[in-house]
Amino acid sequence: MKKTSLLIIGILSFTVNAMSQVEGDVRSKDNKRIPNAVIIALDTTNKIIDSVFSADDGFYSFETLRPGTYTIVAKATGFENRVYKKIIAREKLVNKDAGSDISNSTRLQIVLTPLKPPK
Amino acid sequence: MKINKSILPAFLFILFIVSGFLYEVNGQVEGEIEGRIEGRWSGTISLYTKYEGTLGLNEHWINVSIIDNKGTGTIKIEGENKILGKTSCSGAGAVELYSLAINLLDSIYSFSIISPPCNSVDDPNGNTQDITITDHPLRQSHNYLSGTETTAAQMPNGEGTTTTTIKWTLVRSSDVVLIVTPQNYDNWLPEPGKDEMRKGSVMNISLKLQGKNGKPLTVKATSFELWLSNTSTEPGITINFPIEPDNPGLPDLRFLEAPAMESIEEDQYIEIPCANGVTGKAYIGSYDGGGWTTLTAIAILEDNSRIKGSLLVPGGEQEIRIPKRDLNSKIAKAWLIANGNPGEMDDIDSSRGNPNKGDGFTAYEEYRGVIAEGKFKRFNPKKKELGILGKQTDFTLFNEGISWFKTSSDVEPVKFDLDKKEISFDWRLNMNFKTAHDYDQYALFLLDGALRGNLGQVFSKTNRPDIPAQIISVVVDWSAIQSAYQRRVNFTLPERLKFSLREYLAQTVAHELSHAVNVWHHGGDIKIDSFKVIDLSDRIFNRIGGLITTRPTMLYSIGDIQNTVESGDLKCILNYYPYYRWGYTRGADGARIFNQEPLIPLGRSLCKSINSTDFNATLLYFGNAAKGNCLGQIKLRN
């Protein structure tokens, strides 16, 4: 009985700790990297789960999302908002043998369109 | 005239003997067909007549076989007459079709043929007998007459019944033949246009009526009719394009009104007027890289008869497979021959030094081809192809690296344009298929993107090097590479690196692409210590082997003695050189020895073993690889 309880606790703890990562960079249509863009992750009920800023090179990363399906919204000054739906964040797997340049994070490159100047 | 009763039976019997004239008389009554024969005919005709009655039994057998209206036949008559006793005659010899006329208006025909004479001992110059069929309905074509007629007749005064059955099969031997010449038939291949509604290659079909055996034409054609049957309807125009076909049900090969025109419907039938009575032209447009069909051509002649066309020569095939291919094959013979005759479902492509066969495409899919960077391209069934999806701006940056990957792996990269939507949104490459599909193959999405701490990174569903189907994207951070290169230049001064920034980028691209086809690193990222405090017994050598006497207090980035990411063959793209700065070993006295990593060019091949090369082979650096033979690890499908 004791052993069973421990096993259950072990599974729960694993489930609770499962993390995933969504990362990428934010670019303009002409391929320029956009810093300071706000990237928001919403769950399937449209509840905001997390938000991050893109770095100077456009890189952004959500590092503590739970595995699941998200809507990612990107906003940046001078650009139209962009929405990416059904982005799947996989549970982060650990594989030391694979090397640091292998990852199962979700990679989402966000491309923004400049706002049209007012007529 | 009064006939003596005693001679009446004999009279009737003689009448029956000559009853064959009844048919002749019928023929003569239909004077319109007398002696006139439309065309040349071959076939067989048989007659069986039986009399049974008060006078006894009498039977006739006639069998005739003709070729081009003439032939040979046999006749036999046997009787058992109550007055005359047994009678018989027989004969064999030449026969000739006497008349044959077809009335198209009423869809009937009539013919008559004369048998050989039936001779007996008593009458060595016996009579011939005619077989005549009158106004029989045309049931099939005008060129094929076949039927059976049975008639029963009562003899006068209830003397008996005569039953006659005639069977015949006659085929018109035409004096003309229609020759169908598909231009460049041996080598023509179907090619798609730019989209579903624009044709690619066009096959020109020449039609020519000609006399048989070099004889002059005796009849002219008024028109030609052509059909395409069993035409393929593969979705899209190639295995990848368009990603959402608009007209997946349209035939892949279709008739064109003119070579410059397009077909917008099924267009599997076309009628072509024949102005000069002899020749005609037709055009088949290709709307798919792997289309196939069967062509049938008919010439309609002035006499309303129809001649089926033959491929290239008289007697040639009448069901003409386009493109030229074997029966039941979908692939053009010319392509098969040029590519080692693979089976339609084969996926056995190979690459140098690699045991894993196949690239995920069947031979038919390789033949059907792809639209890549706006152009049609067939794959090579002997060579592994790998689809790489990206933006043209990124390709400009990565072309050299893709080329390094190609040369080292012996895998042929095929680039697909992301902005032209040449690959579906899940990167599936061979998504347009109806037949001859075996495996869902994926392209690799290669892009320049920001990374944290890496110059390149493969995003894999399995978090390990894997086959393309498991790869989400391959990201190379050009900005990070430039920064990293500059740092290395600064660190190496006053010496100079043995590779350029361009090569650094190229190797990074080739390295990450290799991971995306299942190739692992040579080993783990095993460092002794990144910040090593040097004690007095340590000996430190510079990269040319000179003892460094001005001892630093710390050494950075010291790799372990073997099985690290920098171990094994230093010429291999998967080797992490330059990553560590120092190699480490122990001297005979147990002292720690640190050797500064030499400057060498970047590896640009894929290794074939775990064996170390160059400075790794000296025991002063990183030794053999934990995992080698990168070339042998390449795998494109399960």
Summarize the structure.
By secondary structure, chain A is mostly beta strands.
The best one-word shape of chain B is elongated
Low-confidence stretches of chain A: 1-16
Morphology call of chain A:
globular
Q: Helices and strands of chain B: which structural class?
A: alpha+beta
> Which class of secondary structure composition applies to the elements of chain A?
mainly beta
Measured distance between first and last alpha carbons of chain A = 75 Å
Roughly what percent helix of chain B?
10-25%
Strand content of chain B: 25-35%
Roughly how many Å is the radius of gyration of chain B?
A: 43 Å
**What kind of assembly state do the chains in view correspond to?**
heterodimer
- Helix percentage of chain A: 10-25%
Assess the beta-strand content of chain A as a share of residues: 35-45%
Low-confidence stretches of chain B: 1-34
Mean pLDDT of chain A: 85
In total, the number of strands of chain B is: 29
| Topology pattern of chain A, helix = H, strand = E | HEEEEEEEEE
- How far apart the termini of chain B lie comes to 103 Å
Global Rg of chain A: 18 Å
Please outline the helices and strands.
The complex is a heterodimer of chains A (119) and B (638).
Chain A: H1 2-17, E1 20-28, E2 38-42, E3 48-53, E4 59-65, E5 68-75, E6 82-89, E7 102-103, E8 106-107, E9 110-112
Parallel strand pairs in A: 1-8, 1-9
Antiparallel strand pairs in A: 1-4, 2-3, 2-5, 5-6
Chain B: H1 8-17, H2 20-29, E1 40-53, E2 56-67, E3 70-81, E4 85-103, E5 108-114, E6 130-137, E7 144-154, E8 160-173, E9 176-182, E10 202-211, E11 221-229, E12 253-256, E13 269-273, E14 279-286, E15 293-301, E16 306-311, E17 320-322, H3 333-338, H4 363-368, E18 370-372, E19 375-377, E20 385-390, H5 392-409, E21 412-417, E22 444-448, E23 456-460, E24 471-476, H6 478-492, H7 501-515, E25 532-533, E26 539-541, E27 554-555, E28 582-586, E29 592-596, H8 630-633
Parallel strand pairs in B: 9-16, 20-21, 20-22, 22-24, 26-29
Antiparallel strand pairs in B: 1-2, 1-8, 2-3, 3-4, 4-5, 5-6, 7-8, 9-10, 10-14, 11-13, 11-15, 12-14, 15-16, 15-17, 18-19, 23-24, 25-27, 28-29
Helix pairs in contact in B: 5-7
